[in-house]
Amino acid sequence: MRIAVIAANGRSGKAFVEEALNSGHEVRAGFYHTDTLTPHEHLTTIKCDATAVGDLANLLNGQDAVVSFVGHTRRSTPTVQTDSMRALVTAMHTAGLKRIISLTGTGVRFPGDRITIVDRILNISISLIDPRRVRDGIDHVDVLKESDLDWTVLRVLKLQNTTPKPYQLRLHGPTKWYVSRQEVGQAALEILEHKSFIRQAPIIGKP
After folding, report:
1. CA 11 → CA 69, 101, 182, distances in Å?
2. Which of 8, 82, 168, 196 is found 20 to 30 A from 187 (Cα to Cα)?
């Protein structure tokens, strides 16, 4: 499979790129500031502003699917996820591309979600400290819902750079308290390869 990756130089993006390459896929990785990815014969890196339709169209050229790891950093705008998703939907239509996976937090709720006490407390804390971050996650999913794309929103509670452990993708949770970034890479690739959870938002939970 030929996979375009947005924000591939972030920690979660790198974990996914490594998983995809190790599984024999070809990766076209978009980075914003500096290319920090390890060279590989099946890896192409391209500088890409995730909010610029032209950059995204170049990244998506000839690909089968796209995975977005756009998130909030100290230098990003409060609406970076929503702005990038609007641009990405446009670029995907231009490229004739339908399949997309986007990573976000469990603060984005869906009807039927099984919300644990820890999940609720942590998300309330984030909402109090940075409510625009939670709103942006919700709004970027609304952009996908309003599109005709074959989207999947992969949801996690709290990410860590730890050794991956067993997990299970659950449509409504409950979530694992802590999720390894390698688990995110594995889960996103699993969803792509199995063509699963189309127009759904699975949560990474305990097995």
Report:
1. 9, 16, 9
2. 82
